[in-house]
């Protein structure tokens, strides 16, 4: 579990678009004036809550809902893209929950009972209640994933909020469902059957959005790909938050698992070897050309935890990933590569 949260640099622009004066906001929150100038913005739970408390005070009643909703897919962060690549809504939320466990002191809890599916957030290092605006953002983000993934105007059964009922009805309008106030905890509740809703975005070729430079590097090789290279490319396109099985890759290539295995053997490889090559190549790219942290890279590469990733990388490169990244970035680069950002609540 990480002890910090990542704040997306893009939040600065979105706050300005909402008419919020960011320097005054940071001052009120007791945060450094140059917070958004850092390449990787990491904050503690206390700092995260302070920031969102001030956003709630400075913004309009639905500012959290607005900031948690993204209309354009090209603005999605890699973790949301990984969730959208899942086969179903339930699996998408399991992927996100796993990522949270790896990367920050936050948990997403799922409970199914009596035909209902309840989702709520836990802030593991919090010494005070989470800001209401942060709850709004989290629930709006879940709804955004559900609607983009299913391609439907899906709505929860209800929202349960600990706060007293406000005078406005912005939450009912946004979520298109009943909202219960003065509840015991903050929860968004869907139908249990919604977990099985298929995502039309599943198996989308997201690698070009996650790492466009990597995709371009592959195109620039010029030479015709061998069968092993074709398999590696397919693995890398599906290696987002989970480790694909041989049968999944075979199905993607319209082959049986036995035929896939035989053709790889003809090239002198096993499926496991190609899997490791795929992870190794993509790991090098993520560390060299993106702002993904080690926990985030571990998640994107399908490792169960960051320690497993570190051990694997030591085997590949002979040194830990953090050290390798420092050495690579200290070398002169021909041009600046566009950075990836991971949006964390």
TrEMBL record:
Gene Ontology cellular component list: cytosol
Gene3D superfamilies for this protein: Homeodomain-like (1.10.10.60)
Molecular function per GO: DNA-binding transcription factor activity; transcription cis-regulatory region binding
PROSITE patterns in the record: HTH_ARAC_FAMILY_2
Residue ranges of domain HTH araC/xylS-type in the record: 229-327
This protein's UniProt keywords: DNA-binding, Transcription, Transcription regulation
Superkingdom per UniProt: Bacteria
Protein name, per record: AraC-like DNA-binding protein
Taxonomic path: Bacteria, Pseudomonadati, Acidobacteriota, Terriglobia, Terriglobales
């Amino acid at each position: 579990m990480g002890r910090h949260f990542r704040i997306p640099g893009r939040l600065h622009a979105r706050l300005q678009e909402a008419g919020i004066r960011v320097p005054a906001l940071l001052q009120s929150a007791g945060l450094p004036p140059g917070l958004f100038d850092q390449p990787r913005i990491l904050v503690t739970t206390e700092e995260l809550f302070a920031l969102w408390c001030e956003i709630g005070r400075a913004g309009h009643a639905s500012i959290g809902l607005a900031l948690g909703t993204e209309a354009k897919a090209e603005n999605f962060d890699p973790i949301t893209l990984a969730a959208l690549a899942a086969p179903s809504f339930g699996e998408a939320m399991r992927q996100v929950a796993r990522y949270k466990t790896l990367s920050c002191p936050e948990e997403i809890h799922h409970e199914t009972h009596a035909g209902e599916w309840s989702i709520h957030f836990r802030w593991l290092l919090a010494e005070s209640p989470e800001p209401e605006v942060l709850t709004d953002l989290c629930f709006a983000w879940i709804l955004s994933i559900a609607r983009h993934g299913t391609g439907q105007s899906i709505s929860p059964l209800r929202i349960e909020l600990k706060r007293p009922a406000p005078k406005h009805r912005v939450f009912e309008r946004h979520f298109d469902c009943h909202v219960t106030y003065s509840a015991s905890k903050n929860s968004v509740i869907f139908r249990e059957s919604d977990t099985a809703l298929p995502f039309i975005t599943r198996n989308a070729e997201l690698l070009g959005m996650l790492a466009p430079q990597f995709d371009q590097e592959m195109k620039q090789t010029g030479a015709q790909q061998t069968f092993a290279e074709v398999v590696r490319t397919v693995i890398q396109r599906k290696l987002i938050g989970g480790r694909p099985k041989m049968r999944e890759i075979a199905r993607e290539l319209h082959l049986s698992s036995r035929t896939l295995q035989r053709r790889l053997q003809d090239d002198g490889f096993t499926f496991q070897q190609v899997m490791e090559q795929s992870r190794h190549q993509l790991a090098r790219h993520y560390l060299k050309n993106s702002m993904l942290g080690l926990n985030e890279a571990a998640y994107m590469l399908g490792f169960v935890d960051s320690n497993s990733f570190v051990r694997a990388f030591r085997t590949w490169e002979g040194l830990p990933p953090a050290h390798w990244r420092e050495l690579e970035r200290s070398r002169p680069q021909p041009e600046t590569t566009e950075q990836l950002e991971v949006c964390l609540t």
